[in-house]
Structure formats: C-alpha cells, structure tokens
Design brief:
Number of helices of chain A: 11
Oligomer: homodimer
Mean pLDDT of chain A: 93
Helix content of chain A: over 70%
DNA sequence: CACCTCAATGACAAAGTGTCATAAATATTA
DNA sequence: TAATATTTATGACACTTTGTCATTGAGGTG
C-alpha cells in the first residue's frame, strides 16, 4: 500500500523514487527485487521508504496502477470508437498494449512483469471487470453477440481477457515476432467469435 | 531441481521431507515459504536439504510434478474414453481436478498454489502442450472441429486451457460453490464451442 | 584393514527485512 | 515572535533467511 506521506512529497522526489523502483523491477522480478536496491538508487534512507510504502509490493502495485488506468481508458475509448464492437475493441487494445510493452525503455520492466505474471498482477493490469463492469458493459453492442444474459456477457469478457493475457505473456516467452504474435491473437479471437465447433454440429 | 542424492534416499525419508514441504506450502505460498521451516518440520539439518534440492523452488516444482503427471494421464484417458471429443474430455478433466484440489487434506496446499498461480506454475501444472502435443493431438477427433490446420488446433487447446485455468483459480478467489463453479466452466466451454458471435453475423 | 564413495552436519558470512526511538523540519496557534 | 504540535527523516538494531563449505560419518569393496 502507498501511504499518504508519499503522496505529500514533491513530485520530483516522488519521481526519483518511482524511477529507482522501476529500474529495480526492470532488473528483477517482484520476487527477486529488494527494497535495499531501490533506496540505494533513489538515495533515500531505509526508514523513509517504509514511511512511503508498506513494503516492496506496495510500490510495485503502485507503479502498475498507472498502466492499469491507461489500459482501461483505451478500452473505453475503443468501445466508443468501434460502436460497441467487442472484437474490434479488444484487437485494438491488444495492439496498443503490445506497442507499449515493447517500447525500448519499458521492455525489461514489462518482461519481468509478464514472465512472472500471476493472477493478482493480471487483475491489477487489466481493466478490472468486477469493479468497472457497468461502465464497460453499457458500451458494448450486444445485438451482435450470441448471448442471452448479462451473465453470459461477463463470461465472454472473461474468455477474451484470458486469451489476451496468455498471448501477451507469450511475447516474452516465445521467440515470435510482434507481427506474428498479433496475427495469432487475431486468429484466436476469430475462433472464439465463430466457435471452435462446426456450425450445426453442436 | 531435485538432485540424485534425494532420489537415492529411502522412500520413508523422502516422504518425511516431502510431507514437511507440503505442510509448509500449505501454510505459505512459494514466495513466503522457507527452507528453514521445512527442515525444522522434517527434522533434517540445513546442509542436507541443499544436498537434496537446489533451493526452495526445487522441492516446490518436484511436488507439483506429481500432479502434473496425474492430470496429463487423465486427459489422455478422457480423450480415449470420449472418442476424441475435446469438450467432453476437458469438462471431465475439470471436474477431476476440482475434486482433487477440494479434498480436505489438499485444500490449503492448492489454495496457496492457485492464488499465486503464475504462468510458470501453470505450465507445470497442466499437461504441457508443447512437450506432449503430438500424443494429445493424435487422440483428438478433429472432424467435429471448425479448424483447418494443426496450428488452429493448438490455438483451440490453448484457449481451452486458459479458460480452464482461470475458472480453477476462481474456486479459491470467489465465494462460489463447487457446483456453481463447474456450471460456469461448462457454460463458457459451450460459448467457445458455438462462438460468441451470432451465426452468420461474422 | 585400507580405501573409496556418498551422505550428514552445523557453523558461518552475506544479505535482506521491518521497526523504532530520536532528530529535524514544517506548520499552527497564541 | 515564540511556543507547540504535526509531519517527515534517519540509521542503528534485532531478526530472519539464505546458500556454502570444510569436516565428519557410514557403508561397501577389494
């Protein structure tokens, strides 16, 4: 958890600490990173760190939250732009995230995050369906979807998010080009759209 | 990594250590568990532990491997039993895993695993598609599937595994009964089967 | 018995964690 | 302005854990 003390700090000092933290998380996963390294890089005493955050996780999730907000905003924008088309919105979102995590200055940082992505981090990273459900659901055009209830729409969103996340992780896991990776994601989305079973056989 | 020295030990001694480790991993996640606790519980000196395993992860993944083998066997059995029907095979597999992880004596252990499931653990836990692909693919009846290539079949399997895994995690994350959880998984499988888009609209 | 191989042992250095009492800085009030 | 209250800064400290390593012990073999 971030503490009020940190938020009271000048923006410059905040940034100095956040930058140091990001460097540390670019060097090592949450599991292997250390408070010791962050304070060394930021040039602050140990005690200060613990005035600002509860622990290492605190600053890790604080950093991650920025991206989370950004991703959610893009999804909402997309749903408006594509008039509620879920598939188009998520394919665009996928490309947006991919571009972001591939940026030179972010790559090592996101590599550590994605290769150690657990479901707590995933929940933080993606627009949290449980919290923002209503806002997102309202924007979706359900007339094209093969669903009969709000609950089924949630299932659809969860399936898409699962598939999206796994594909993003594979960016760092497999030696596949960005272009190929997008192609695979789109193909999987199309499979989900049309169904994996032959029509009529079900 | 497990070392040969451990495998040379008597089965009783091996079990004493594995039991202690399982207790520790029932108490805490991989991140929070400690070698110190395992050796205390097992009553072995510190040096011995490091003769048997490289580190904590070593024994963690060694334990997990047992389940991995078991799950893979069940999937193969299912594919035979259900004559290559992917959906039926995975729904049965899902129920099998759910039953196993809900067992009294396993619950705390699996809770820690699933709530801290990252993609490295996931890869270990599930029948590894990359390693066992051929064996599994051969058993699948593709005539019912809406696919045109071997590659698409892999996509289908990956989608199913993603969805399965997320639902398993939610057993421990959400306060939903086992029955309801199975129901949701089945509904999601049916959605994937028939497609999330209305037929003809695509 | 002498030798060899492999297992057992626990002291140790290194590294990190989170806390706490105290000092310093800043804000508030009289 | 001076006194007081609040907030922030600091680093020493106790504690926990890790992985190593030199030494000891046990069992088998020629």
């Amino acid at each position: 958890m971030v503490k009020q003390t940190f938020l009271n700090l000048s923006v410059e000092k905040q940034n100095k600490i956040l930058t140091a933290a990001k460097e540390e998380f670019a060097r090592a996963s949450l599991k292997d990173a250390s408070v010791a390294n962050i304070i060394k890089k930021a040039g602050i005493p140990r005690g200060s760190f613990y005035q600002y955050f509860n622990d290492l996780e605190g600053i890790f999730y604080y950093l991650l939250e920025e991206h989370s907000k950004d991703v959610k905003k893009r999804l909402v924008d997309n749903l408006v732009k594509y008039k509620g088309d879920v598939t188009k919105s998520f394919i665009d979102l996928y490309q947006y995230i991919l571009k972001k995590i591939s940026k030179e200055e972010n790559e090592a940082y996101f590599k550590n995050i994605f290769l150690n992505m657990d479901y707590k981090i995933e929940k933080m990273f993606l627009p949290n369906l449980e919290d923002n459900l209503n806002e997102i659901i309202q924007l979706i055009d359900i007339t094209k979807l093969n669903i009969e209830s709000r609950l089924q729409l949630i299932y659809v969103l969860e399936i898409i998010e699962s598939v999206m996340m796994r594909n993003l992780i594979q960016v760092f896991q497999r030696s596949v080009s960005k272009e190929k990776n997008i192609e695979i994601f789109i193909k999987e989305m199309l499979l989900i759209n049309s169904g994996i079973y032959k029509k009529g056989d079900n």
